Structures are given as C-alpha cells and as structure tokens.
Amino acid sequence: MMTMITLMRGSVMKIHGLSSASRCLAAEGGVRGLSSSSGPRVCIVGGGPAGFYTAQQLLKARQDAAVDIYERLPVPFGLVRFGVAPDHPEVKNVINTFTQTAQHERCSFHGNVNVGKDVTIDELRQAYHAVVLSYGAEGNRSMGIPGEDLPGVFSAKDFVGWYNGLPSNKELHPDLSFETAVILGQGNVALDVARILLAPVEMLKETDITQNALEALAGSKVRRVLIVGRRGPLQIACTIKELREMVNLPNTRADMLPADFEGIAEALKDLPRPRKRLTELMMKAVKEGGDDKAEKCWGLRFFRSPVEVLAGADEKRAAGIRLALNKLEGSGESVRAEVTGQLEDVDCGLIISSIGYKSIPIDPAVPFDPRRAIVPNEMGRVQDTAGLYCSGWVKRGPTGVIATTMNDSFDTARVLIQDMEAGKLDLSVNKPGAQAITALLQTRGVRMVLFSQWEKINAEEEKRGKSLGKAREKLLDVDEMLKIAWS
Amino acid sequence: MAAFTAVRAAVSFTQRFVRVSRDCSVCPLYRLNVCTGAAVDGFSAPNRRLRTSIGVCQSADSSSPEEDQRVVNVVFIDRSGQRIPVKARVGDNALHLAHKHGIELEGACEASLACSTCHVYVSSEHYEKLPEPEEREDDMLDMAPMLQENSRLSCQIILTPELDGMELTLPKVTRNFYVDGHVPKPH
C-alpha cells in the first residue's frame, strides 16, 4: 500500500503536466526500469521541433520503443530557441512539451554529438532499428549576385542567429549606423528581422534577446526598412500575424507604393480567406500609412529582384543595392516574375538576404537532392535506404511554422510504426542502441550532454537573465555551455 | 499497471472534486497525505511563462457553484472518425477537456493564440452560438490547414449551457498532405 502511495505521489506530480501527449506519456512511465530492453530502438538526428515531435509520436504509439535524440549543440530545441523571435515567447511554450518528451522514461537526449563527424549514419543504422533524420536546414540560399560578400550584407539566418544567441553567429557585429536597411524576401523571417530592427527597445529589453544585440539595437541608427519581393502583393509569403505586428509597431509608419497595388482591390473577392485578409491588411496600410510624425518607417516593395550590391566610394563595404524591376507572367499559384530591363538603385548600408534557409548533406551515405536541397523521400521514407527516415525541413524543404513541422513529424512517425508492424523493419534482431554509440563516442573522445545537464545550462541562463531583468541570458559560447553542463 | 490506472482515476477524481467542492478535507489524496496541491493549480504550472488569452485560465475558477453543476455534453470526433462523447461543465475549456479525455489534440502554444494546432470544426448549429473570434484567433486560424467555415481554435471555446450537444471534429490534416499532392503554402 505504501509503495502504491509513493507511486501515486510520483505519478500525480508527473500527470499534472502539460499537453495531452505528454500527459499520456508520463502516466505510463511512472516506474523506472519497466521499459523492455528488447523493443524497437529508434535514433533521431536533430534536437529541434521535428526531432522532438517525431519522438513524441513514436513513444506514444509503441509502449516498447526506446528513442534517442542526438543533437550537435549542447542545447536542444533548434529553431524554437534560435529562430523564433525574442518577442514571440508564446510560440516557445512548445519547449514545455519537448521537455516532457525528453524526460520520458524511454527517451534520451544526447547533446554535443556531431552526426556525420563524431559518428556516421551507417554506425547509427547498425546500432538502431531505425534512424530518423530531422536535422533541419542550417545553410541559406545565396542571392548569387556581385557584391554579395561585401561587409554590410548578411543572410537573415545569420542575423536572426545573432540576436537569438546562436554560438556560430556571436561575432557577427552588424553595423547598424546606417539609416536605411533593405531586406530581400518577404516571408515571416524577413518580417521578424524588420520588426526587430525597428521595435522600440522597451519591447525587447525583457525578452531573451542577447544582451549584445539589445545594446547594438539600442544604439542603432536604422530608421527605414524596405522589405523587397520579386513578385506582387498577392504572392507575399508572410502571414497576417507578422504583417499586423508591423502595422501596429509603435512610432513607425508604413511607406508603400500605391503603384505596386494596381488591380489588387478588384482581385480581393475571389481570394481564399487567409490570402484575402492578408491582402486587405496590406491595402489598409497603403491607404492609411500611419502617423506622419513617426520617426521610423517600413515599406514593402514589390516586383523587384536584387542584381548587384553596390559598394561605396571606398569600395570597402555595401552602400546600396541595384534592383531589377519585374512584371508578372502566368496566373494563380504559378505566377512568375519576368525581367523588364528597368533598374532601380537604393542607397542603404545594411542588406539582409532572407530568401530561404537550405539543408545540406550530412553524410555521404545519405542520398541528397542538391536541386531541392532535401533528402529524397517518399512520405518520410528515405529513397532506396531501408530503415532510414526523415522529418521536418530536411524532408519537405525549409517552409512552414511549428505546427506544419508537427504534422509532418507525426506523419513520419506513423509511417515508421507502419513499417515496424508490417515487418519491413526487422525487430527480431536485437540492437544495442545508445549503449553502443556512447561507447564508440568515448573511444573518440566525444562526451555527451544529457538532458539533465542541459537543465543546468538552462538554470544558469535563467539566473543570468533575472539579474538583467530578462527572461534569460543565453550562453553564447559552446565551451562555456559544456563547462556548466559537466560541472 | 493497476497502480497507474488507479492513479489516473485518482487524478481525474481529484480534478472533478476540486472544481465542485474545493474542500480538501474530503479529498482522498489529501486524507492519504499525498496531495501535492498540483490539482488546485488547475491550468497553471510553476516556472513557466504562460501567456494565455483572456478567459481561458479564469474559466476554472470563476464559475459559480450553481453553474458548475450544469453538465454540457460534448462529442469529440477524432481523426479516424471515432465519436467520443464526454460530459463537461459550464466554464470548461474545450482544449483542456480534450486533453483530459486523452483526445489527440495538440496545444503547442498552450492556449496563447500563437499557433493553430488545436484547430477543430464545430457542429454548425453550435458554431453560431459561439462568440465571434477575436482578430488574433482569426489570424491564427488563417494558418490552419483545411480551414473551413466552421473552424475554430478549441483553446478559445469556453462551454456554456447552449453548447450542449456540440460536436468538435478534428481535421484529417495529415492524410491530405499527400493524397491530393497538395504542396503546403509557404509559412
């Protein structure tokens, strides 16, 4: 009876958790050591949303499955930590769900492991019944224009990484002493960058934005941000939430070109609801403009493609961008931009290219489609490679919000489970799983960061944040992260 | 496994108890000295910045004792078409209700209108009876795959007596990713 009460106490605390899936997971995992050692073992490469949602679904669907998540950085959560804007903390609530998954009995997080370098995909496939690639898109598409490498030009991926504390972007030091910034691309990332550049510092100072970015932005001279797209208003890729945040941004006004909106009002009535509401909001911004006295302004510019970054008189850094004017051909989803021959130069000192993230190949043993920059697959099953699956951006390409990746990861998990049940994966063979990989890594001098060790990093970041009046102050240095994790 | 079933029963029992009586002295967990106080916290949780929309967290606390007793019957229809009837109370939040009954409805942003993962279709006669969505909910709904006229975010549905008999259907989102070759819209 006392054992039952102790069990109940432990389980009640676990059950008063958060989301439905995590609640179901925690409830049946109340007693340590019950998980079977002969059940399927699955390895997930990548500790971001795709990895965690795939794990969550696998653990729920098979009570005998053990799932190990490998992540290159000492810290988990991928773009939820490094991509979602600091002023969107509610979007990061999903970290609580991921934490529940990581703490699940049958799940283990292994940080500080570089798959492809510290351990190969083939070695993982030998140790596990199935391997799921969820490593996302760490590269970015380049504009492919002259002057792209001049100082003052950044990829949105790096700029976002800078204000979000991605260790490899900590030395970015963007020069914010110019009045005009031009962003190429009109997706949500582009709008996030514009908003962070123009937001009043009061809006940012209690968030988890890095302190050095906060200080740089506090001293920023940027007053005008143009967000440039090669097609028209009906093709804009951002969503209404982000556009509304720009329209409502304090002390800014919208600076649009009415000419870009010719014919749009007439097209409104035939649009599906999301596109219609988005377009109506843009039209409203064109008409109303906003407070003339506002010190800062932002504008959307359509039908323009970058053709050259222009250097300043000293030839040392970017001072402007040359844009080609387009016209649209085709209709519906397949509208394309065609050059007209006309050009337009815009003076600016900060150029941010936000035209898409891009996946890169992880291991020569894994098929990769360089044109689409994804791992070729059929519903998540990697082409011609039994036992290898993929989920998230590396599977579909780098678009979509967390919900999109969630659905996609659930799909891959379902397909994997189907394959287990149909006998396509031979579960009768015993696989050593994490035990073998840990031993292998040890011989290579690689030490992992466990989830409980990430929690030390987490506690330290929250502590440092508290003293600065912020949600957290992220550690920027991998060595410092490791020191705290292993302390 | 019996222990777990017992625990699950105990927890949902406690949750119902707390909502009805708030009298800890009659609760078995309290009497067994294993109450962690977690049940009383309801929808909040320590150490988390939970930004919820107005009304969601209040619903558990603000209903009067008379209203609390009023049952609202809701039917969830899951992604495989299975009907799951549940008995709820006035003031309950539809998303939390789904979680309580193990229905596969995610709530990634935890009811703060920052995602669309709790998207459901509402039976048409009850859809009319819901208050108009606020602009922020409409903005998030715009991102939900397979949006329909009767789409709502379940984290914003608070049960009232006139919603008795409401059916909430989970969208068959995932099947349609591939069947019709549909390419997800950017972002």
CATH fold-level label of the largest domain in chain A: Rossmann fold
The count of helical stretches of chain B stands at 8
Helix content of chain B: 25-40%
The overall pLDDT average of chain A reads 92
| Spatial separation of the terminal alpha carbons of chain A | 39 Å
Largest sheet of chain B: 5 strands, mixed
In DSSP terms (H or I, runs of 4 or more residues), the helix count of chain A works out at 18
Which spans of chain A have pLDDT < 50 for at least 5 consecutive residues?
Answer: 21-36
**CATH level 4 superfamily of the largest domain in chain A:** NAD(P)-binding Rossmann-like Domain
Task: Tell me the number of strands of chain B.
Answer: 5
The gyration radius over C-alpha positions of chain A equals 24 Å
User: Largest beta sheet of chain A, briefly?
Assistant: 6 strands, parallel
* Architecture (CATH level 2) name of the largest domain in chain A: 3-Layer(aba) Sandwich
Kindly name the structural category of chain B.
Answer: alpha+beta
Greatest contact between two chains: A-B, 56 and 54 residues
Q: Care to count the β-strands of chain A?
A: 18
* Overall mean confidence score, pLDDT of chain B: 73
What characteristic shape of chain B results from the CA principal axes? globular
Strand content of chain A: 15-25%
Précis, in short:
The complex is a heterodimer of chains A (487) and B (187). Chain A is α/β, with parallel strands linked by helices.
Structure description:
The complex is a heterodimer of chains A (487) and B (187). The two termini of chain A are 39 Å apart. Helix content of chain A is 36%, strand content 18%. Chain A is built from 18 helices and 18 strands. Chain B has 8 helices and 5 strands, in the order H-H-H-H-H-E-E-H-E-H-H-E-E. In chain B, strands 2-1-5-3-4 form a 5-stranded mixed β-sheet. Chain B is globular. The chains are: A alpha/beta (487), B alpha+beta (187). Chain A: One of its GO terms (molecular function) is oxidoreductase activity. Chain A: This is NADPH:adrenodoxin oxidoreductase, mitochondrial. Chain A: Pathway: Steroid metabolism; cholesterol metabolism.
